[in-house]
# Entry
Amino acid sequence: MTPVILTLGNTLVEVMRPARDQPLDQPGPLVGPFPSGDMPIYASSVARLGGTARFVGVVGADAFGACLLARLAADGVDVRAVRTTTSAATGVAFVAYRGDGQRQFIFHLRDSACAGLAPEDIDATVMDGVRWLHLSSISLSLSPSGRAAALRALALLPDTAVVSFDPNVRTDLFAPAELRDVCGVLLERANVIVPSVGEAALLADAATDDAACARWASQGKLVVLKLGAAGCRLYHHATVETVPGFASVEVDPTGAGDTFCAALSLALLEGAAPAAACRFANAAGALAVRALGPMEGAPTRAAVLALLHDAESRPG
# Structure
């Protein structure tokens, strides 16, 4: 049986400003809806890269839910365990981009359909063939029932399966103290931790990201600190290695980190050495920023391999 990569959690669409420096507190044009959610983006990216992805979540019985489900199915994600509810609407995030690269979000998530994810949504059929489980803090924090669903997936997961955790901290959704409490179980169980700059120090209550990542690596975990366009830093036992990124023309950075995590998971699951998996993930992340919309730039395996080949063929 082909090993399954499973993820679960938030479901939403994004509606965004089409150009930079158009704040959300003023009237102006919007484009969308674009299918989104950190875990749906991850699942979509796994599937596009040739992996077997399964997603569990809840959407509303509305056009936004249909938009997201159709996109996941078209990308090849197994969505049979996605439940549709009439009791809440599909989540929405409004996004504006600033000229300095920062983003402004307005989330409508806590009372949306995805908060209704429950332990009952995780059964033996969902877990069949799963060899990798990927989660984020958003998956754990939207509701007590959603957190219980994630913990049930962990409980049913074979001991030999890998757990990866992307903190994906959203301080506009959750306070740091709440995040540390919610993420504690995942940080303990995770085999692979993939934080962004600032997240490791925050969650480990450490002075620096390097100190936090080194601490986790000393516990036997594989830690990859995402550095954006600069690539990533790999912590493996006592070894620390910076793996450089790839030049790219950024149109929309949203979702690039989730695509990075998807590529990293798939490469490691397929047996790649950690540094090679990081390079594959850097290439996928660089390609993901080239289109407007969080899932629109997620690349195929052929596109990632072409970028890697092109980089290796250049003189010097």
